[in-house]
Each structure stands twice: as C-alpha cells, then as structure tokens.
Amino acid sequence: MNILLLSMPDSFEHTPVLAMRMPNGALTSLAGNVDPHHRIAVADLILAQERVRQTVERLVGNVQPDIVGLSVMTFQRETAKKIIKLVRAIRPSALIVLGGYDPSMAPEAYTISGGGDFIVRGEGEVTFRELLRAIETESGYNHIRGLTYRRGGRFHRNPDRPINSLDDGDIRLPNRDARVLGGYTMLGRQVDVVETSRGCTFDCSFCSIIAMRGRNFHTYGFDRVLADIRDARGHGAQSIFIVDDNITLNVRRFETLCRAIIDAGLNDIDYIVQAMTSAIANHGDTVAPLMREAGFRYVFLGIENILDEDLKFLRASSKNSRRKNGWKTGNATLEAIDHLHR
Hints:
The protein has helices at residues 25-31, 52-63, 77-90, 101-105, 108-111, 125-137, 209-213, 222-234, 251-263, 277-294, 308-313, 333-341; strands at 2-7, 20-21, 39-44, 67-71, 95-99, 118-120, 147-151, 154-157, 185-186, 189-194, 197-200, 216-219, 239-242, 270-276, 296-302, 321-324, 327-331. The chain is an alpha/beta fold.
C-alpha cells in the first residue's frame, strides 16, 4: 500500500521555526516498523508552514496514498481537522489514521467530528503495523490493541496496548529515508532526533507523559542507540536532540551513555538534551564533564519552580531538590546551572 504520514505545521511559541525546525521522530519510527513492501512517505509540515495546502496537494498527488496518517498534539487539533478535510476532498478513497498525544488522550475530539477512520492510541509502532496487515488481509480490527476504529457509523475502542519494554527488538530503527521534505535545523545546523528511552516514574501533576503511558521507564540497548546516532549522522545531522522523556532519571545510565558516545567516536556531533535540576545538581561533578566530552552543548533544564510550596502543589519537589548525605538541602536550580556553566 501507499502510505503518507504527516506531522502538523504548527509550532510552539518558544520554538520559532527561524531557530528550530525539528523532525517528528514518531513518524520515522512508524516508517521503520511497517512491513517492507509498503511504499511510505513522511512529511513534516513544519518545513512548509507558508505553503501547507500546496504541499499536501502535491504530496497526495505524488504518493496517491491508500493510508494518510496524522501525528497531532493538542494545540494542533484544528489544523489537523482542516488537513483531514483537504485530504478527503482530493483523495476520497484514502483511509485516515490519527495518532499522537491529542488523539490518544482526547479521542472523542476526533470520533465526534474529526473525520478520521482510525485512532492509534499510545505507542504506535506495533499497533500501526498490525493495522496495515488487517487492512490488507481484510481480517477485521477488533483484535488490535491500542486501536479505535470506525465501523457501522460508530467508533469502537479496543483494549489498550501494553507499554513496550523496548528490549526485545520489536521496535526497529527509524526509516529516515522515508522523509520527502528537507530543511531540519537547530540554530543554523542540520538537526535530527534520537530516542534512547521512554517514560518517567515521577507523578508531576502537569505532565502528559504519565497520562499517556503510566509511570514507567524503559530503555533501548546502547548498541541500538549508537546505531541510531550513526544513521542520523549518515543522513547529514550535525546536531542531535535526544528526545527522551527523562533521560536523567537514571544518572548512571546517562553517564554510561556519554562514555559509549565518546568511545564510539560520535562526540563530533552537538547534542541537545532535557534534564532534571536534581540530577545535574546532585551528580554534576561527574555527569557534567562527561556530557561536555560527549558533545552535549545545549541543555533544556527542567526548572519547574523555585518555590517549595508551588513544587509541592505541582507534585514536582523531588525532581527539583538538592540533597547531601541523603538529606534535602534546598532547591537544585542554582547548583544545576552552576555545574553546567562550569
């Protein structure tokens, strides 16, 4: 089958496209995990913000998709519905599959008036693969975990799919060759994304991660991670954003990853990472020098708040605490910043 996967053109206010145009790693992961006989194209519409309609029309014309998949976040919902309407107008025979945080957590927004045929909830690689097989074989959809599907004028919700442990090889490497648009940049350098783990065990009240997948933490093996980095570099990446939900949850593993990057000679890349203040403050003497040697140049530091009362309300105190000899000694923010600056 011909498959076209689209991410939405809308960007966050704090990530203007002039400075940052990141690829959607979920779509290339989906592309890498379908059966190889499919013809698949991935298009990040953030690369075509000024010409969305023309780009979608051209891609649908070129690919002639049997399946069109959309990855959607909540602030992109209305844009997604407009793109669904456009696809319906120019390719009525295409089946529409929705995935990402918004359809997973608010499926009713799409089952009532969203215009899709399927919703892939949660992690999508295995669910999407099984969906394509079911469409090809006309074997029905009620056996596919993590899927919501339209039948007989109404939607049916199957049981959730268990969280993937990531250690059994069932999720293959992304397929970056499937991308049909170019121009991913971070501060003027070509950028890509790599994932080394999924999940977080904290219980912050504002977080969508635990609402999506529960409180858990699973990791890929380092051989796979290094192969992914090599593939990204082979496709031209000069910078790599490690998009893990909370890579510093296991500081010792993160330190070992830094050493593995150094030993593999992959520290000629500029790495970007998200980190907890507590992890950097409490382990900065060892982890910060390793990060620098491994090539980490940008750190999005999770400073949720500096007021204890507010952190308690957010259920985020532990992530922002400085500790000594097992005792909490204050907020971790300033010490974390100091470690990174030094």
